[in-house]
Amino acid sequence: MSWIGRKAGRTAKFLHLVLKGHILNPVWASREDRRKRRYSATFDSVMGYLRRYAGPISRIRPAKPDTTPEPERAFTIWYQGEEQAPPLVKACFRSMRRHLKQELVVLDEKTLFDWITLPDYIVDKWRSGKIAHTQFSDICRIELLYEHGGLWFDATDYVTSPVPQYIMDEDFFLFMAGKKIRGSYAFIQSCFIRAKKGNPVLGVWRDANAVYWKEEDSKINYFVHHMLLRLSVDVNPVAAEHFGRMPKVDQDPTHALWGEHCTDLYDEAAFASLTADSFFQKTNYKDKRLKDMTPGTVAEHIINSNLPE
User: Fold this and answer.
1) Which CATH topology does 73-251 take?
2) How far, in Å, CA of 200 to CA of 127, rounded?
3) Helices 237-244 and 200-215: crossing angle, nearest 10°?
């Protein structure tokens, strides 16, 4: 695919978003309605661009995986190493070790490649900065689970109970996007994934990423990884069949706590109520509110929870 074609496609995507998401988005509409129109325009423009890869993605048939049994593990990544993680991330790691039945494997930039093998062009684009850490982590998590099976947790997932058995029984599971948070157009949430080794959905998804990044030098959208799965299940019969079997559960309960309540004064009953509908809560170590954290808040409780005695 030529550079000129990609450039023209990106320009068309940008103009579509500006026109539909902003210029023709009525200022008299409610903030919520304007957001929905903007997200709809974003989805249409990004998917319109990605469909140039529909042909090769539709033909992907994942290679037969290694079927050697492996123990169930939970994987996460902190590139600088666990000891260099900020306090909130360390608290999330402690919560995983406290509640998960599976061994937690915290990978970093040095140990990651002991576990996975990626195409050279993807690694080179990451090392040169063309693929950002966030998008590279997206690629790595599906490679880890495809090669080894198990669980993926983002480093900012605060775990409050074991993974439910109905999820562990699935060959593949992640949460659908829901409606509460930024990027609800992104189709799915990838901060938690459960998959068995060699899962066909992961096989197609990983190859779809390879198709995209072989041609592209930057992300078309922050959620390009998520939307490549949407394209895969739209056009690839293998991905569509196996994804169709997955229970569809919204991510909203996994975001019940942090965004609106991290600065609330901690109350045991309220905390238990807010976290009751999910086994983890997504947090944000970059949250500016952490700089002036008030003693006794939910955020402080999380950061100081499960500290070694």
Assistant:
1) Spore Coat Polysaccharide Biosynthesis Protein SpsA; Chain A (3.90.550)
2) 28
3) 140
Instruction: List alpha helices for the chain, DSSP H.
Output: 3-18, 31-50, 54-58, 87-99, 120-127, 133-148, 165-168, 200-215, 224-235, 237-244, 258-261, 268-274, 298-304
Rg (Cα) of the chain, in Å, rounded? 20
| CB of 202 closer than 8 Å to CB of 145 | yes
Q: Where are the domains of the chain?
A: 3-58, 73-251, 254-304
| pTM attached to this predicted model | 0.89
What is the CB neighbour count within 10 angstroms for residue 290?
Answer: 19
Place of tokens 């992907």: 60
Q: Summarize the confidence of residues 120-143 as an average pLDDT.
A: 96
| Joined tokens for residue 165 | 């058995």
Instruction: Please state, in angstroms and rounded to a whole number, the distance separating the CA atoms of residues 277 and 290.
Output: 25
Give the DSSP letter of residue 294.
P
Least confident of 44-48, 121-125, 132-136, 282-286: 44-48
Residue 188's DSSP bridge partners are 176
Type of residue at 70: E
Q: Could you tell me if 23 and 177 are in contact, meaning their C-beta atoms sit under 8 angstroms apart? A: no
Q: Which residues pair with 75 in a beta bridge?
A: 105, 152
What's the mean pLDDT when you consider all of the chain? Answer: 88
